[in-house]
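Bug #77: duplicate submission created two jobs. Keeping one. Sequence:
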Amino acid sequence: MQRHRLVRVGIEGLRFEAIHYTSTPSEKPRLHGHSFRVDVVVEGWPDKHGLLIDFRSLRSILEDRLREWDEAVILPVDASTRFEGPFSVKVKRVRGEATTENIACTILDETLNAILEAATGLVTGVRVRVWESYDRYAECIELLKAYPQDNTSADS
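Kept job's structure:
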């Protein structure tokens, strides 16, 4: 019997503080903030040494990218907003509304190539989960190639 085992490698509990707003049909948008938590899982076929991606590399990729999100105002790409005052403002843009779903997908878009380059095995999927509170999260999942050519490992 031939075995097909995927592995999952994850980093949990990365954090950034940011503010955003979302539009709802019933109320005017309200700028509000969260202590966002980010968890990332990389799934795939390990290389011949049993490694999919090094934990340190994955953490470094994510921490580098999330620095850009920390203390930012998250806005839709097409939003025209002006800030005035004796302060600096860091703005991060997402496609569509600044929902937690779109934040998760933007983080995935921004990190996917670096994750794929750092992986030593064959990545079949990456999941980014963004928590906006202790009990609410959104995920964005990129599904990639399902099997290596011989169905056993990435380097065989």
